[in-house]
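Contributing new records

If you add data, match the layout below exactly. Sequence lines come first and carry their own label; structure lines follow with theirs. Keep one chain per record. Anything else will be rejected by the validation script.
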Amino acid sequence: MLKKGCDFISVANFGPDMEANKENTFKNFLLKSVDSDLTELVGMVKAGALKLPVDSVMDFKDVPAALTKSLGMQAAGKIVIKINP
């Protein structure tokens, strides 16, 4: 849900329905991951200072289904992929 007139900024491959969202601005950007930044983010999550909504946890063999779910905008949070079960 997005209030009219607000910006929506995504770091994912999000394609908004521009006809239904004429009053909002959508911006996408991608950055290169930096190890020290990712380490700091993991520390924040472990400390409870950063909370991430998790939709589901899936096995690596189910990556195609996870991508389908994500690209179909059916996930209500992050989809976590287990690399080593």
